[in-house]
Design goal:
The chain has 265 residues and is an alpha/beta fold. The chain contains 7 helices and 7 strands. The protein has one domain: Glycerol-3-phosphate (1)-acyltransferase, CATH 3.40.1130. The radius of gyration is 19 Å and the shape is globular.
């Protein structure tokens, strides 16, 4: 690629990113204002409105030249379960709502303070908040009881086992909380791999064109030893996430290679 063409592509991506971010922020603000009256309406009405927002965002991503492909939807059971999702980007927290029936998200408590997002998430998904770095037995038992209650109601509990967004290719840091829940609840766990961090990186306004993939993997059945479960979970998510990263980075229109990436891992 010539220097002139590289410069053109760079400028185009910057303009696309800024244009998308401007529309996204405006749409988020207007959506939040429009949804405020629904905070006192039945939950199903706010849920429908939230799902419409999620679908709209998937279409809005085309402004940045980004498409989303969801794979393995047949692996999501209709009954209660735990969805253990790789976390690289903000995308996976707001794009998948219409693929779940009645989800409950385990999220950092700090996210509940975000205007609109925190208010609506608490009502729509009855979010299970966790305080970062808190390991007190009382707090763990409270989270366990809330997760168990949600699953017994037939809901899908979405948890990010690493606790925060991780750069593509970085060393995985899975917390023990997912093993704790698996052992005590006895629910199947659905691993989710993705490569969204290549296209919507954290801590930057840059958005890159291409096809981001989120893939639901076959369930890990209950009954395994905690150590075996944790090993299977990490390996399945990381192996497929790395394959999806390679798929994106070797495509005809690849995103930039992140500094944390070291080949096929």
């Amino acid at each position: 690629m010539s220097a002139i063409l590289r410069w053109f592509v760079f400028c185009r991506n910057i303009v696309r990113s800024l244009w998308f971010q401007s529309i996204f922020c405006l749409a988020y603000f207007l959506w939040g204002l429009a949804a405020l009256p629904l905070l006192v309406a039945p939950k199903k009405e706010l849920w429908r409105f939230t799902v419409l927002g999620s679908v709209y965002l998937r279409n809005l991503l085309r402004v940045a030249g980004l498409r989303i492909e969801i794979r393995g939807l047949n692996n999501i059971p209709k009954s209660g379960c735990i969805i253990a999702m790789k976390h690289q980007s903000s995308l996976e927290t707001i794009l998948l709502l219409d693929y779940f029936q009645d989800p409950a998200f385990v999220l950092k408590r700090e996210l509940m303070w975000i205007p609109f997002f925190g208010w609506f998430a608490n009502k729509v998904a009855r979010v299970i908040p966790v305080k970062r770095n808190q390991r007190a037995p009382k707090a763990a038992l409270k989270m366990l009881n809330r997760v168990r209650q949600a699953i017994n109601m037939g809901r899908q509990v979405v948890i990010f086992p690493e606790g925060t967004r991780r750069p593509v290719g970085s060393k995985p840091l899975y917390k023990r909380g997912i093993g704790y829940l698996y052992k005590r609840i006895g629910s199947p766990v659905i691993p989710v791999a993705l490569n969204t961090g290549l296209f919507w990186p954290r801590q930057t306004l840059k958005r890159y064109p291409g096809k981001a993939v989120i893939e639901f993997l076959p369930a890990i059945p209950p009954g395994l030893q905690t150590g075996n479960f944790q090993e299977i979970l990490v390996k399945s998510i990381e192996d497929v996430s790395n394959k999806l990263a390679v798929e994106a980075l070797t495509s005809t229109n690849p995103p930039p290679v992140p500094s944390t990436w070291s080949g096929s891992q």
